Amino acid sequence: MTIKENFSLASFSGYKTGGPADFFISASNLDEIKSAAAWAKEHNQQIFILGGGTNILFSDEGYRGLVIKIDDKNFWFENNKLYAGAGAMMPDLVESSIKKCRGGLEWAGGLPGTLGGAIRGNAGCFGGEIKDNVESVTVVDYAGKLVKFNNQDCRFSYRHSRFKVEPWIVVEAILNLKSDQDKEKLTRISQDHINYRCERQPLEYPNCGSVFKNFPVAKAPAQVIEQFKALIKTDPFPVIPTAALIDQAGLKGHTIGGAQVSEKHPNFIINLGSATSADIFSLRNFVVDEVKKKFGVNLETEVEFLI
Known about the structure:
Blueprint: E1 4-8, E2 20-27, H1 30-42, E3 47-50, E4 56-58, E5 63-70, E6 75-78, E7 81-85, H2 90-99, H3 115-120, E8 124-125, E9 128-129, E10 134-141, E11 146-150, E12 168-176, H4 183-200, E13 215-216, H5 222-227, E14 233-234, E15 238-240, H6 242-248, E16 255-256, E17 259-261, E18 269-271, H7 277-295, E19 304-306
Parallel strand pairs: 2-5, 3-5, 4-19
Antiparallel strand pairs: 1-2, 6-7, 7-12, 8-9, 10-11, 10-12, 13-15, 14-15, 16-17, 17-18
C-alpha cells in the first residue's frame, strides 16, 4: 500500500480544479481499503472516499486528510445478476450488460462515474435510478467492519442514500438485470441517451454534470407551478427542471472568473479553461441567490462541494 503525500486532486474532478490532498491512496481491493482506513485512524487523519470524481468540487486549498480512491473495477455476470466492485465504471457496466443481452441498465447510457458513486447518490436519469437495480450493497466502516445491506436497508431516496450521511465505504454491489433481452433494442435506448447528452449538454468543457437537483412540484409556489406547468416532468416524481428556472432567471451565460453558467444547459456550470474552484463555488452561490429572489425557491445542490 503506497500512500502519496501532497497529491494533486485536480485531475480527479470533472471540473479539473482543486488543490492537493495531504495524503492519497488508490485502493483496489477490500484489504487495501481497510488498511488505508486503519492508517488514517492511527495518524488521526479524516477520510474522504473518492469514486470517479464526476460529481465533486475540491477546494483550491486541497483536502486536509486522506483521500481514498476506490479502484476495484472488477465485475462479472451470473445469470441475471451483475456482481461489481465499487470502482467499476458505469459506462463499462452498461456496455457489458447490453453485450450479454441483459436489460435493466440501458437507462444509464452515458452516465459517468463509478458504481459506488452512483449508489451513494442514487444516480438517475431518463426515468431510471440505480436503486431500481440494486439487490444488495456490501460496505465497510472505518474500523474495518464489513456489512451487507439489502435494497431497503440502503434507504434510497431522490439522489440520496444512507451512504451520503453515514461513515460506510461502498465496496461492492449485486445488481439485478433482465436476461434474454433484445440486444439491438437495448443498444438503441442506451445510444439515444448518449446522443441526447452530447446534443444537450456542454461536454466539451470540464464540468460535473447537473449542479442542482430538479425542483419538486410539491415544494413550489403556485405561481411558479403555473409558469412552468408545460415543462413539469416525472424524475421520478413531478419536478420543475432546474435548468428552466435558471434560464428564466436570466442567468444563462453568466460568468464569474473562469466559470460560466452553460448557455447550452443552464443547470451546468462549466470551466471555460481558467476557472478556480472558488470561481465555480461563487457562481453556484450566485445562482442560488438569484433563483431564490426570482421564484422564491431554494435550490438543492447535487454536486458535492468540499469547500
